[in-house]
Amino acid sequence: MACPMNSFHYNTTFCACNPGYYLNLTTNECTLLRLSAADWLVNSGIDYSLTFPATIFSFDAIKRLTQSQAVFLEATLLMLLSWLFFCFFVRFGKLRDGNGIWFRIRWWISRLDICFATRHWLDDQKVVRKRKTELGGTLSIASWIVFIGLFAALLYQIISKRSVEVHNLRATNAPDLVSFVNDMEFNITTISSMSCSNLRGLGTLVTGNPGFIDHRVVPLSRFANYSCINTSTGPTVTIKCDSCKLFQDSLYISWQFVDLSNNPAAAVGFEFNLTAKNHASKKHTSFVSGTLKNGSNFDDSPVTFRGSDSNMLKFNLFPRIFHNLHGLKLMQPLFHEFLPGSFFREKSQLQASLETPNGGLVNTTVYINFLSAYIVEIDNQNILGPVSFLADLGGLYCISIGIFFFILVQCEFRIKRLRNEDSILRKIRNRRKAQARWDKLRKYVIYTWGCSKMDNDYGNAKRDSSCCTEPCWGNRSAHKCRQQDILESISFNSKIGFPECTHSQDVESCLVETTSKPQGGLSHSKGESALKFEGQRDGKQQSAGSSGGNNSQLQALYSTNDNTLPPPPSLEFKAGSEFDMAEIQKNLQSLYEYSAVLREKLVVAQSKLNDLAMKASYPKPETQT
Fold first, then answer.
1. Of the chain's two ends, which shows fewer C-beta atoms within 10 Å, N or C?
2. CA–CA–CA angle 260, 262, 264 (5° rounding)
3. Is the separation of the CB atoms in 394 and 63 below 8 Å?
4. Does residue 79 register a pLDDT over 50?
5. If we measure between CA atoms, which residue out of 587, 597, 583 comes closest to residue 490?
6. CB contact at 8 A, 130 and 118
7. pLDDT digits (tens, 9 = 90+) for 255-284
């Protein structure tokens, strides 16, 4: 007869596995017993993890991701670095005239300055006012990112560790022990190729300590129900005790396996599982489970248990009262010690034992020690109250704001360009809004006075000379034509000028040129419009007085040569700055004075032309010869 691998012959016809190997009845091979740390489990019966509605959603992935506060801190750091890198990259964008996407992004970043709007750099004797800068917006959002991340970590800590479990020990009385009523179950599996047919001697319970006066021997059926079940790893002895009341501190339960024909009594290990449930509430279950293969503390080599010496498994049971679970009373089983009996390490020794009929036993004893002297009372004690929560929250806010406020102060102190960067963005935006409003006004004027063409580019394109310069014919009144000339002649271009005419014979050509170019000069109606505008701002009398004085100066200046037209006044505008109403009033006043001088010269020229026309209309009397 051929034996499987990792086995040997004994009695010339039978096969047995090597020490540490057992015959797997499923594969019919000798299998080595291997153990790992995962084979040992201890559960108190109380679930301390967060409860989620697992029937609705699957939160296993969330539980794995939120095992510690490090996840929240890493996510906060990632978001902070992303935001700072984005703002640093945006600063390289050109502002230009304020119509680009870079200006809009940088403008809205500056609008996010909600934390440091009143804490920017101030010169001496300056009034504190709100100033929203791009640097302030960047650091404000960064501080809020840090605060929200730290706040999330604080909430996780409060939810997961909002209370501390306190264990108290107190001496027990007899009525306290009587009130512990649990359903207990003991499962001991002998890992081997044996079956329940090899089982003998199960049915006796020994209480008390052997040799002492409290030693008793009673039938096991008075204490619990017992049975044996064949499994793939060996026979399993099951002992169940419903509504069990432990009346002694020490309990011993023993059994043994004997040799059968072609099925010797040998084992390579033991597997146990002890559970305890409250009889009234079976929701909570405490248990201990594990696997044993070698009782030596110095060597973990595989062995085979066989012989008359008993293998003892020691367990402890101690009572616990959970005051935080409505006074739940539950036994906690714990594995204490394993005392190995007879075993063999060498194949020759095992072979000799199998060939000897006297050593065919595997004795097993379960020792249960009930620690009834003390009772463990468990309760929860809150460590975080509303006051401590608000204190922690305020501390996180101060840290978040303080760090980035220090960075803001250092940047504005060392880089002077950052002190007034808000004014640059505001000037560009105000100029763009003023241009947009002026375009709306031009469109309204062109639509109202019937202009057929509009020029959108003031700096490069030239105006159509036929736009709003056609003569007033038909139903158009002279008043509308005059208003049209006045509105078309007003311009905010800083390069406004008039044609220079230095000789009297060029007066007519200069007049034609000024009327065809709205930016070149103002007519008599323009002077009246400017005078009205000045009168509304400064008063009619003051404007009239100043106009008269300036007219007299201009007349005195050009009285030496009546045929010479004065040069147009220069209009002063500060390049790159906002329009000031005082400058506009000053330029309109100069245009008015220049128009007054031109009017006087035109009146003189008109009177001369009328005189010449009258003289030409009367024929000269013929002289008689």
1. C
2. 55
3. no
4. yes
5. 587
6. yes
7. 999 988 878 899 999 999 999 988 777 788
* Positive or negative torsion for Cα 72, 78, 82, 88: positive
pTM for the model stands at: 0.53
Cα–Cα dist 150/155, whole Å:
9
Counting other chains too, the contacts that 389-396 makes at CB distance below 8 Å and 24 or more residues apart are 389/158, 392/154, 393/151, 393/154, 396/147, 396/150, 396/151, 396/154
Write the pLDDT tens digit of every residue in 544-559. 344 444 445 444 444 4
Segments of 71-224 assigned E as strands: 163-171, 182-191, 199-200, 204-207, 216-219
314's CB contacts (< 8 A; 6+ apart) are 335, 336, 337, 338, 339, 367, 369
Q: Characterise 593 by phi-psi region: left (phi > 0), alpha (psi -120 to 50), beta (else).
A: alpha
Q: What is the pLDDT of residue 83?
A: 93
The pLDDT score that the predictor gives to residue 285 is: 87
CA–CA gap between residue 472 and residue 282 (Å, rounded): 104
CA distance 429 to 424: 9
Locus of tokens 């199960």: 202
pLDDT at 592: 84
Residue-by-residue DSSP string for 44-79: -S---SPP--TTTS--HHHHHHTSSTHHHHHHHHHH
Torsion of CA 606, 608, 614, 616, to 10 degrees: -120
Residue ranges of alpha helices (H) inside 416-523 are: 421-448, 478-489, 507-516
Beta-bridged to residue 10, according to DSSP, are 14
- Lowest-pLDDT range of 146-155, 519-528, 550-559: 519-528
pLDDT of 67 reads 58
- With contact defined as beta carbons under 8 Å apart, do 510 and 565 qualify? yes
The answer to whether residue 561 scores a pLDDT higher than 80 is: no
CB-based contact 312:367 (threshold 8 Å): yes
User: What pLDDT, on a 0 to 100 scale, did the predictor assign at position 255?
Assistant: 94
Q: How many angstroms separate the CA atoms of 370 and 318, rounded?
A: 6
Tell me how long the chain is: 625
